[in-house]
Amino acid sequence: MSDTSPTFETRVLAFDDLDVRTSYEMWRLRQDVFVVEQGDPYDDLDGRDAEPGTRHVVLLGAGSGPEGDGGRVLGVARVLDDGDVRRIGRVVLAREARGRGLSAPLMEGALRACAELDAEAGTALDVVLAAQSPLAGFYGGFGLVVEGEEFLDGHIPHLPMRLRR
User: Fold this and answer.
1) Domain limits for position 75
2) Per-residue pLDDT tens over the stretch 114-150
3) What is the tens place of the pLDDT at every residue in 45-95?
4) Burial 112-128 (b: 16+ CB within 10 A, else e)
5) What three-state secondary structure class fits 21?
6) d(C-alpha 21, C-alpha 29), whole Å
7) Residue 113: what are its φ and ψ, rounded to 5°?
8) Residues with Cβ < 8 Å from 83, sequence gap 6 or more?
9) What percent of the chain has pLDDT over 70?
């Protein structure tokens, strides 16, 4: 499934639908931002990317627009099936994609992936995520509310958030 615009395309893909180049760029982006830029070494390849209920939301540059990023992975998010909730995580934009209004379509794609998984399963599970604390307001714009105390993930403060469905 895809949505298109003049500057980007959002794809929601199961693990087996990822091509090699997209997979590499996706994992490289997560490493570049979370491990290198944010200085938080963690176990990114945790085995959950390949689970049957996992969906990868991939934001690709489309065309040859002024940014010159046609076909490049600009952002990713991961949706997990935790059994009793859908979990959105690994939400990240490439440095050159920030400030261009692309975080909202990425999050919309993640929420759409949750809804599609629910439709396939005949459920309506809550959606949860651990938001980096400064981004709680952004996620709140999608109906997620803080549900719990702030905690450290690595050295970065996070807030647990939930969208009740």
Assistant:
1) 2-163
2) 999 999 999 999 999 999 999 999 999 999 999 999 9
3) 899 999 999 999 999 997 655 454 568 999 999 999 999 999 999 999 999
4) bbbeebbeeeeeebbbb
5) helix
6) 12
7) -60, -40
8) none
9) 92
Over residues 5-34, the mean pLDDT reads 91
Number of domains in the chain: 1
CATH code, domain with 20: 3.40.630.30
Which residue intervals of the chain are DSSP H helices? 20-30, 103-121, 136-140
Average pLDDT, the chain: 91
Report how far apart the first and last C-alpha atoms of the chain are (Å, whole number).
23
Total residue length of the chain: 165
Q: Look at residue 42 in the predicted model and tell me its pLDDT.
A: 81
